[in-house]
Amino acid sequence: MNNIITVSSLKKSYGSKVVLDGVDFTAPAGQIIGLLGPNGCGKTTLIKILTGLIKDHSGTVRIDNEEPGAYTKGIVAYLPEKSYLPDWMRPVDAIDYFSSFYKDFDKAKAEEMVVKFGLDSKQKLKTMSKGQQEKLNLILVMCRQARLYVLDEPLGGVDPAARSAILDLIMNNYAKDATVLLSTHLINDVEYIFDRVLMISGGKLIVDSHIDEIRQKGKSVEDVFKEVFSYVW
User: Fold this and answer.
1) Which of 38, 95, 111, 145 lies at a CB distance of 3.0 to 4.6 Å from 104, suitable for a disulfide?
2) CATH (domain of 48)
3) Looking at the whole model, is its pTM more than 0.70?
């Protein structure tokens, strides 16, 4: 089986600050992977490289054996940490926009999800709460039949009561045999959905473990995180 993600000797610096320092990993189809680490560890930079938003790096990055570009953007569904939709848009407008832009977008499912999550299809984004905006953005991403879903902090502005429903949305709506790469700091809430976790510290990948390997040691993902990043607690 081909790897949907291949990263080798990846390095990225901002001036004298090294953000990613020789990162190596692969990801096959069909896994839900947690990308974990404290703020400033390089998670978002890695995500932007994978999605083709940052190109000035060294090392090899391949998505479905191709460099990030026009082809990979057609098979990658990306949820950034901050919404990129204009304030004047309403859910109905955003759905029409995605439907016209992405051939793999399921418009009927998106309209159904808007109702399910209690969003007003005619309400402008600028009048929505942060949580409502994040729900809409996630609906738009998860209603694509993508090969790779890259989600940067999808639960950041969602209240605890809604997190379970959001995770169900992710679990039940990503395309069959697709890969999900999910960056989060809410480990305890989401670790049960992961097949594998990657942890970054100081620009290096210091943990790359399958969940079963962690549980066989009688630990949780949060236990490992606290051990690895004890300096941030």
Assistant:
1) 145
2) 3.40.50.300
3) yes
